[in-house]
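pasting for ref
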Amino acid sequence: DYGPALENWNWATNHSIDSSPYTYPGTNITAYDYGKSAHGMTDIQTALRQSYNTAAIRALAEVGPTRAKQFITNLGIQTTQALAGSTAISMNISSEELAGAIGAFGQSGVYHPTRYVKSLRFLDNSLKQSSFKPVQAMRASTAYVMTTMLEGVFSQKCTASAAAINGVAMAGKTGTNGYPEASIYAGDTMD
């Protein structure tokens, strides 16, 4: 949602977005921010750092499913889910995909496919290397702005302030989908 907006429309961190309750089109189902709170107009940096769900849903609606799908595909996320509505805040993806995708932000937008094995050595002492080619998933400027916003998640009064490690440059994202036991965190130490 925010990544493709930065990539395709050059949104700035102060781009205004509505974070009031959101009613899904054609339904009477309303999405809220955590704790059924409402925040009204805010900037995307605050929305991301505070994990305002309704702002993310609106950003995805503005970006559209085609651009959103292309952006996450470039980050190694393979999904058959339709990208709309609640997929802005919760998707059925693996922790491996999530870790690989968030790592690209700290690598100037270069996605390095995740892997568990770098090489295999056989009994005859031959070696087979596992090779994966890095992919420029987004502009370096998009990655920089996203990283800057994600670093703020550890600031005072933001969603991961208790997880900050003094002296370690960290960027990350917390999230819930309405169920406390479904809380997530994904991050990168930039080293």
